């Protein structure tokens, strides 16, 4: 299981995805921990068993045990937060914004890895889940920490490509049934 194996599964009509997958992962300037944590967290967020099975072993091999766990934690907590905060934002009654969330999210404050890396992964997952409030919040934290726009963009490029590959491969699997 590997990036090459995943690329070989992408149909010819989606050749751009194959090229982009190789580019956003294989030619990234991101530090290895940011890159592979982003790959793992977005693979989880894509909800595609195929994508996760193919990318997880390589991510695990490139991450410390703490970073591996933290990337999974980012995907988990953002799966909850993205639904909650996106819904709160979309409701026309803005009074919900004044109510206490009452949801545990302690991992954000103590992720077990560098806070910037965890924010990076949370941002990428939020891109897949489409939560504007979370995207803005995590992007601001990243920018205040000195992360350049180009690096932030790398996070959502990875998210976009992983999600597109997941959608394509899952559609092909469904059509083959």
Secondary structure layout plus pairing:
Elements: H1 3-9, H2 15-26, H3 32-45, H4 49-62, H5 65-90, H6 106-109, H7 115-129, H8 132-144, H9 149-176
Explain what you see.
The protein is an all-alpha fold. It has nine helices and no strands. The chain has one domain (3-176): AhpD-like (Up-down Bundle), CATH 1.20.1290. Helix content is 75%, strand content 0%. The protein is globular and about 50 Å long. The model has no long low-confidence stretch (mean pLDDT 95). This is Alkyl hydroperoxide reductase AhpD. It is an enzyme of class 1 (oxidoreductase). It catalyses: N(6)-[(R)-dihydrolipoyl]-L-lysyl-[lipoyl-carrier protein] + a hydroperoxide = N(6)-[(R)-lipoyl]-L-lysyl-[lipoyl-carrier protein] + an alcohol + H2O. Residues 95-177 form the Carboxymuconolactone decarboxylase-like domain.
Please state the structural category.
mainly alpha
CATH topology: AhpD-like
What percentage of amino acids are in beta strands? under 5%
User: How many structural domains are formed by the residues?
Assistant: 1
Q: Using the CA coordinates, give the radius of gyration.
A: 16 Å
Rounded mean pLDDT is 95
How many H/I helical runs?
Answer: 9
Distance between the termini: 23 Å
- Under CATH at level 1, the class stands as Mainly Alpha
Per DSSP E runs of 2 or more residues, the count of β-strands stands at 0
Order of helices and strands: HHHHHHHHH
**Could you give a short account of the major beta sheet?**
none
Global shape: globular
CATH architecture: Up-down Bundle
The H-level CATH homologous superfamily, spelled out, is: AhpD-like
Q: Oligomeric form of this entry?
A: single chain
Share of helical residues: over 70%
Low-confidence segments, ≥5 residues, pLDDT <50?
Answer: none
GO molecular function: disulfide oxidoreductase activity; hydroperoxide reductase activity; peroxiredoxin activity
Family: Belongs to the AhpD family.
EC number: 1.11.1.28
Keywords: Antioxidant, Disulfide bond, Oxidoreductase, Peroxidase, Redox-active center
């Amino acid at each position: 299981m590997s990036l090459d194996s995943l690329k070989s599964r992408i149909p010819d009509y989606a050749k751009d995805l194959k090229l982009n997958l190789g580019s956003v992962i294989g030619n990234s300037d991101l530090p290895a921990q940011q890159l592979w944590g982003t790959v793992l967290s977005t693979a989880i967020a894509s909800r595609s068993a195929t994508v996760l099975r193919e990318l997880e072993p390589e991510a695990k091999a490139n991450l410390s045990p703490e970073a591996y766990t933290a990337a999974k934690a980012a995907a988990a907590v953002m799966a909850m937060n993205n639904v909650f905060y996106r819904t709160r934002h979309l409701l026309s009654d803005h009074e919900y914004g004044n109510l206490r969330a009452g949801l545990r999210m302690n991992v954000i404050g103590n992720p077990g890895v560098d806070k910037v890396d965890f924010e990076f992964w949370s941002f990428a997952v939020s891109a897949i889940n489409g939560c504007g409030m979370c995207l803005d919040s995590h992007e601001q934290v990243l920018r205040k920490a000195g992360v350049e726009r180009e690096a932030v963009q790398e996070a959502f490029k990875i998210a976009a490509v992983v999600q597109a590959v997941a959608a394509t491969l899952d559609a092909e699997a469904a059509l083959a049934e």
